[in-house]
């Protein structure tokens, strides 16, 4: 009886599954889902090579300095770097005096309190300070940016899919929405044209970003090392710099990783040699006294022959 009930319950489940499958299949054929504008136009970050890529990667200090310069002269007007301190700039190859001068001359002052009056005030940045935010708070930041919030850039290359590649593609990815065609030759529909204060950029997930193109003309900054400041170069350099801000100890991590790998390799070899050494006698015993011993085999063959067993 239980079996019959079980059979019918199972049959019920299978029937429901089949009904669900065929209804969905019919639906998918009759009303195929329409591609969203995001699926049609959003582009994946273009790969870009950086010296810090891969397990052997090291930072290119000259590039980081150039990237820092782009941040300082362009991005710092809107974006904070609240997890990075001035003193860390010595990692980029600046001397102590240079780092002091950079902090002292930083255009944005650090908020503080006047000790005499208790009023809010600002002071020059010190080497021990984090990079100050250009806005007093989120409300002020949104008010200045058409209600969009410029995110803190310290960890942006970790926070976005594609990391540095994404930042580089985004900075060089502004296109004219009127004339833009995707790889299938389709134009951007009217409903997805950027609204006021928005700018079309197919690398941005939303297609229209509130940040106006920050790097617009070659020579926007002048690099101290004489590198030609094309838009392409500046965006690469600032992306490389943002890899450093997100992970300043990447080189130490790579070094530790290699040390651990080599240590584990040597430990494995030692463990194998110890295993051979410890079991060597036991194995010898087995081969002398065990079933493979020639005298033992001879006896067994004789017995088999006596009883007429083959093999
Ligand atoms: C005029 C102000 C302004 C400047 C200058 C500026 N940004 Fe932005 N940025 C913004 C705003 C506003 C947003 C938020 C956009 C949004 O959410 O639509 C943003 C967003 C971003 C994002 C995040 C995009 C995302 O996926 O959410 C990155 C990365 C970025 N900016 C990098 C930079 C870099 C690098 C520079 C310097 C070369 C720079 N920005 C200069 C205003 C600015």
What characteristics describe this protein?
Cytochrome Bc1 Complex, Chain D, domain 2; mainly alpha; 10 helices; 6 strands; 311 residues; two-stranded antiparallel sheet; binds heme C
SSE layout:
Elements: H1 2-30, H2 37-41, H3 61-73, E1 81-85, H4 96-104, E2 110-113, E3 120-123, E4 130-131, H5 138-144, H6 156-159, H7 163-171, E5 199-200, E6 208-209, H8 231-246, H9 250-289, H10 294-307
Antiparallel strand pairs: 1-4, 2-3, 5-6
Helix pairs in contact: 3-8, 7-8
This protein binds heme C (HEC).
Protein name: Cytochrome c1
Organism: Sphingomonas swuensis
Keywords: Heme, Iron, Membrane, Metal-binding, Transmembrane, Transmembrane helix
Describe the structure.
21% of the residues are buried. A two-stranded antiparallel sheet has the order 1-4. It folds into three domains: 32 residues; 156 residues, Cytochrome Bc1 Complex, Chain D, domain 2, CATH 1.10.760.10; 55 residues. The protein contains ten helices and six strands. A hairpin with a 6-residue loop joins strand 2 and strand 3. The model has no long low-confidence stretch (mean pLDDT 93). It is mainly alpha-helical. The structure holds heme C. Heme C binds next to helix 7. This is Cytochrome c1. It is found in: Membrane. Keywords: Heme, Iron, Membrane, Metal-binding, Transmembrane, Transmembrane helix. It comes from Sphingomonas swuensis.
């Amino acid at each position: 009886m239980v079996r019959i009930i079980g059979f019918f319950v199972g049959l019920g489940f299978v029937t429901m599954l089949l009904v669900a499958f065929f209804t969905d299949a019919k639906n998918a054929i009759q009303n195929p889902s329409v591609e969203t504008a995001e699926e049609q136009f959003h582009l994946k970050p273009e790969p870009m090579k950086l010296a810090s890529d891969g397990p052997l990667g090291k930072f290119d200090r000259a590039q980081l300095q150039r990237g820092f310069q782009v941040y300082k002269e362009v991005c710092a007007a809107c974006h904070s770097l609240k997890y990075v301190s001035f003193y860390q700039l010595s990692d980029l190859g600046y001397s102590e005096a240079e780092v002091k001068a950079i902090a002292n001359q930083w255009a944005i002052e650090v908020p503080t309190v006047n000790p005499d009056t208790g009023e809010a005030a600002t002071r020059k940045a010190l080497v021990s300070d984090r990079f100050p935010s250009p806005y007093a708070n989120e409300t002020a930041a949104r008010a200045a940016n058409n209600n969009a919030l410029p995110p803190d850039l310290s960890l942006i290359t970790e926070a976005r899919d594609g990391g540095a590649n994404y930042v580089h593609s985004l900075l060089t990815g502004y296109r004219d929405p009127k004339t833009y065609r995707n790889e299938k030759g389709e134009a951007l529909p009217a409903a997805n044209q950027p609204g006021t204060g928005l700018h079309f950029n197919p690398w941005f997930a939303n297609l229209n970003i509130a940040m106006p193109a920050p790097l617009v003309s070659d020579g926007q900054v002048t690099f101290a090392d004489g590198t030609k400041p094309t838009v392409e170069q500046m965006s690469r350099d600032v992306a490389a710099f943002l890899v450093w801000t997100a992970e300043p100890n990447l080189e130490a991590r790579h070094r530790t990783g290699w040390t651990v790998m080599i240590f584990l390799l040597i430990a494995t070899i030692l463990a194998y040699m110890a295993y051979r050494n410890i079991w060597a006698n036991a194995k010898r015993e087995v081969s002398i006294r065990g079933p493979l011993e020639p005298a033992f085999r001879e006896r067994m063959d004789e017995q088999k022959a006596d009883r007429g067993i083959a093999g």
